[in-house]
Amino acid sequence: VAVPFSAALGLWLGILVTRSERAARIITPMFDVMQATPHLAYLVPVVVMFGAGQVPALIATMIFAMPPMARCTILAIQTVPSDVVESGHMSGCTPRQLLWKVQLPASQKTLLLGLNQVIMQTLAMVVICSLVGAQGLGHKLLFSLQQLKLGFATMQGIAIVLMAVVLDQLTQAYANKASVHIHGDRRSYFEQHSHLIAFLTMLVVSVLAAFYIKDVSSLSRNYHLVTSKDALELDKVIKSFTFWLIDYIRPTRDFITVYMLIPMRDFYQALPWTLVAMVLAVAGYRLGNWKLSALIVSLLFFIIVMIGNWAFATTTFYFVFTATIFCILIGVPLGLWAARSDRVAK
User: Fold this and answer.
1) How many Å apart are CA 10 and CA 15, to the nearest integer?
2) What is the average pLDDT value for the chain, to the nearest integer?
3) In angstroms, rounded to a whole number, what is the distance separating the alpha carbons of residues 302 and 254?
4) Exposed/middle/buried for 267, CB within 10 Å: 0-12, 13-18, 19+?
5) What is the model's pLDDT at position 184?
6) What single string gives the DSSP state of each residue in 181-245?
7) What is the pTM of this model?
8) Contact, 68 vs 3, CB < 8 A?
9) Cβ burial 305-322 (10 Å sphere, 16+ → b, else e)
């Protein structure tokens, strides 16, 4: 339910931003705030207004998953080649025809990338939304983790990952599928729509069979390959493997903690707030304008004076900045290696 709503709303807002400068000035900062907000923070205002349950979980998921679709829509429309747009104008397209028959079809891959991101973001909220009453695999996984049932949690986590892989592969395959245009096609209706007819036939047969054969409508537990006993055994294997591996992990963990993370944390916490404010204000002015600089100073003033959480803010900043550095140091070489080697990319 969340994916089509998020995709449709994101598509509409993305189109609105490209059509109106006033809308862009209002909506773009909202996207910035929405994408900068942590997952759990979405739940607070939604639960306050709607309480706990499926509906608040759905609303929080839609709010979290919608901005990537809108961003991809904006990028898709703005990057359509000018000669394609010009050919649409020369063909006599109205603004609406130019959008729906020229610009959006020409940017199909980018739009489907946005749909792919909506699906991934929705699945990322499955476990988190279970905190406010969302049912399904996320709720089962959260319960298993709370009970320290690692075997069950592993199986449920694998199920969520496999669902994500299936949907990811389908959307990527559709995005990369080459369009085939046949002029003067003289095939019959059944030949042109063979896949649709086969699907409808299977649908009718399965629905009718479900009335007479119980296993067609709902899968019996007799067909489960993994039982509760297997999950308990898996739990024992995971714990045994963890105890064996800790002797190899502990030295690396302690080295990174003592010689890298703690010094960086102490460095950030020792910085005077005035120095941090001045550096960020100057950076905002140089990278943007005085409005961005004033916004940064105002937000820092709110953190320092109004909330009084400057010490915790520096710790959070240290954590985020350190993680970003590690991601760049690991991700960029991997990306370059994959770009230069088809085997590595696979």
Assistant:
1) 9
2) 84
3) 36
4) exposed
5) 61
6) --TT----HHHHTHHHHHHHHHHHHHHHHHHH-HHHHS--GGG-SS-HHHHHHHHHHHHHHHHHH
7) 0.70
8) no
9) eeeeeeeebbeeebeeee
